[in-house]
Amino acid sequence: MKPKPAPTRPCPTCEGKGTTPIPDPLQQVLSILKLHGADGMTASEVWANSSDKIGITAVNNRLEALRELELVERLRDGKAWRYKLT
Question: Over 80: is that where the pLDDT of 14 sits?
Fold first, then answer.
């Protein structure tokens, strides 16, 4: 069985005509969402499931970067945001 190719994003150098791999930190957050986030996850839930020793602010930044790439959507959940794969 062939390994699945890594997700890509539009290349910032060539004005979106090519693609470039998504950085490992963002791929790690995507993996957490794929494993645990069927109904979406808050940043604190992603942080609690992360094996990296990173702060909650870093998790928020990674989730927002994924949202800007349109790989996740953001839904209001009370006072928090819930992120879900698109």
Answer: no
Token pair 């790989």 is found at: 71
Domains of the chain, with CATH numbers? 22-85 (1.10.10.10)
Length of the chain as a residue count: 86
Q: What is the pLDDT of residues 41-71, one digit of tens each?
A: 999 999 999 988 899 999 999 999 999 988 9
| CA–CA separation, 17 and 67 (whole Å) | 20
E strands in 1-86: 8-10, 19-21, 72-77, 80-85
Output the pTM of the full model: 0.79
- Read off the tokens for 17: 């005509």
Cα–Cα nearest to 71, from 59, 80, 84: 84
